[in-house]
Amino acid sequence: MPEFPRSDFRLHVGWRNIKTSVTAMLVAMVYCLIGRNPAFACIGVIFGMGTDMPDSIKNGGNRLFGTLIGGLLSIAVFWVYLHFYPQGGHSMLLAVLLGIATVILILLCQYFWPGGVQPGGVVLCIVLYSTPVETYVSYALNRILDTTIGVIVALLVNYFLPRERVVALWEGFKKRIGAAK
């Protein structure tokens, strides 16, 4: 069992922390300016900002493909559900459909992107149990879009500002500041 709290912990704000927080903040500002809720784009940023590009691709891909598979699957399942109960409200059928959809989700993720099961399951459950009948399609599609934007922005920032480049820029900045004194 892991030790809690960790005895080797030391407080440290590193470049990944700074890149993640600044990128999430900028995405949130752009979303606020265009009148959209930034929550899922910012979640995409946070998932997509890894320690390096392979880590970013793995974690961002988990979020992106999980959301894509779970979102599209939730639309299909909700559509089936609404054929039987157009006004909604029959939770036993929805529970059975969720069970079937979870099996399908896991199989699709195993085929396309194995790490997408958890984020895909989250989207599936939220759409099926927390989205009004009138907006389930637009909600799922917007969630996919916003997650995609957040992950892509994180990947771009991590690609153009890898740790090595950021550290070199920072060291150069410190030298210039030191020389100016």
Structure explained in plain terms:
Helix 2 (39-48) runs antiparallel to helix 3. Helices cover 78% and strands 0% of the residues. It has helices at 15-34, 39-48, 53-84, 91-112, 117-130, 136-160, 163-180. The chain has 181 residues and is mainly alpha-helical. It has a domain at 62-164.
- Contiguous low-pLDDT stretches (5 residues minimum) are none
How many helical stretches? 7
Distance between the termini: 51 Å
Radius of gyration of CA atoms, rounded to a whole number: 20 Å
**Biggest beta sheet attributes:** none
Percent of residues in helical segments?
over 70%
Task: Give the integer mean of the pLDDT values.
Answer: 93
Approximate shape:
elongated
Q: Which strand-content bin applies to the residues?
A: under 5%
Number of strands: 0
Q: What structural class do helix, strand and pairing data support?
A: mainly alpha
Query: What is the succession of H and E elements?
Result: HHHHHHH
Protein name: FUSC family protein
